[in-house]
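Feature request, filed as a ticket because there's no other form

It would be nice if the structure record came with a short human-readable summary line next to the tokens. Right now we just get the raw output. Example of a typical job, pasted below so the devs can see what we mean:
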Amino acid sequence: MSLSDLILTLIYTFIFGSMFLGIALGFSIITGVLRIFNLAYPILFLIPAYGTWMFWKDLGLPFIPSIVLSLVLAVISTFLVYRFVVCRFMEAEDYLLAALILVFLIVEEVIKLVYPEAAGVYLPTIVLPGTVKIGPATVAWQFIITAIVSIVMTVLYIVFFIKTKRGLIMRAVSQDYFTSRIMGINFNAMFALAMIIGSIPPGIIMFLITPVWALNPYVGWVLFTYGIMVAVLGGLGNLKGTIIAAYVIGFISSFTGFLINPRLMSLSCLIVVIIILALKPRGLARAETIW
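Raw output as currently delivered:
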């Protein structure tokens, strides 16, 4: 490997790793606090994107208000999923998983029916057009902004969990649910809040990557695949592990994509994740709390 290849790999490790961190962030928060595997998470990529298109093109609203309304729609959808699916099946994990995947499939099918690929849905959410030269790499500004926004969101959530009263309560719930319940914590409110705050990052990331990532009704599950890999490798529901795992997956993607074969990027990540899990079944962090 030449010095140029090494620099190129490291630059895109940062870009890809930060993007994967943003994709997995909400999933890790929900998993960390509620201790559930939220298989309905992909709808949080689809609803903001297609909701914006609906408000903007079908209902004729201005573009920015359409984005805001679509995020509100994602939050409302998340609360409904919590209220009518998670609460109902919380004590029956197998039924809960089945119900959550059904929610995702229903939303995906509705979107495919209303906005098939031929509809050509496109969101002009480019923050800064063009590219920038960084050493041997030519990087789109949109990728850099996506990386920066992912890191900023992660820092804000960490501050929330470390410095705020509600964040500390969520950490207590994530560490010992039954003791927290005995202590009188309103765990229903904490669970609902965790679901809602976890629903925001995927929508923001979706808006940022849409100009550089093909938007179609199947994109939710594709992005969720990366979110699962990062969350599982990091140690389900732990933000420290999620951060480490995101950049591990980013390095594997970058190394494979630039030095071996771009078509092997996802496969190589999956193989490495399964090998690491065989050696460390609880992931890289091995923590019992969200932070």
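Something like this underneath would help us a lot:
The longest strand covers residues 131-134.
The mean pLDDT is 92.
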